[in-house]
UniProtKB/TrEMBL annotation:
It comes from Vibrio rhizosphaerae. The gene is aepX. Keywords: Isomerase, Metal-binding. This is phosphoenolpyruvate mutase. Pfam families: PEP_mutase. Gene3D superfamilies: Phosphoenolpyruvate-binding domains. The keyword Metal-binding applies.
Amino acid sequence: MIPVTHPGITNSERCSSLRSRLQEKGFLRIIEAHNPISALIAENVICEDSGTTFDGIWSSSLTDSTSRGLPDIEKLRISDRISNINEIFSVTTIPMIVDADTGGLIEHFGYDVRLLERSGVSAVVIEDKKGLKKNSLLGNDVVQIQESAEIFCEKIRYGKQVQVSREFMIIARIESLILETGMEDALTRAAMYVEAGADAILIHSRKQNGNEIFEFVRNFRRDNTVTPIIVVPTSYNTICCAELQDAGINVVIYANHMLRAAYLAMKDVAFNILKHGRSYEVEPNCLSIKEVLNLIPGTY
């Protein structure tokens, strides 16, 4: 019998799997994957002490761009990234959330929603900024302009209007805390985006203590106990999942760590081969060829 890479899943099953996992578990861990091998690691790694695994994959515009040697300025469109998404889907079964930056023009966003949904993606995240995209962790150190809440609501409504299935999720990412426009602005926008049809809210912050995230969640949950809240704790990385879950957060995304770790490892290996004039010294930091071959079912 010819071995297959995974048990198999249809696009519609995969598309609905994020929403069903949320309903079943209430709290999900998502990690970035920028190519099939990193996605295989994301799906198969397990903490043996607790039995914890990752519940899904984050397709990051930052890491997708960086892995191609391109700046993170929304140069890559969804149509440019779909082949990589399909390659990841060919070897995995867990759900994927796609980072779509601002979502582009409203009319273009509708096409992207259809394309992602048809491919089996479970959710798309769009952020409420406009103009040339800059990475959020730069904050006001660079020029970033927040989109008007009314126009962003139009984009959400249009995306929900054109999607075909009920399971596909459109997630609204709020940049108010990043751009320091205030907690009240963030909460007002969250209520408006939910009213416009957003299936979840991603609240982002670059503060290291996480206090403003917890403040947002407390205030949001006073009026809304149902809509999922998503966070990306890149800056406040000392806060554990258990604390985030206890605060009322439903999804945590580790958004760029796989690429960052791979880059350091590759740089170190390349440098030390040059330094020593041979590869012997780097072998302890490399998988054996046999282990590489064993990574992928069907190699033998």
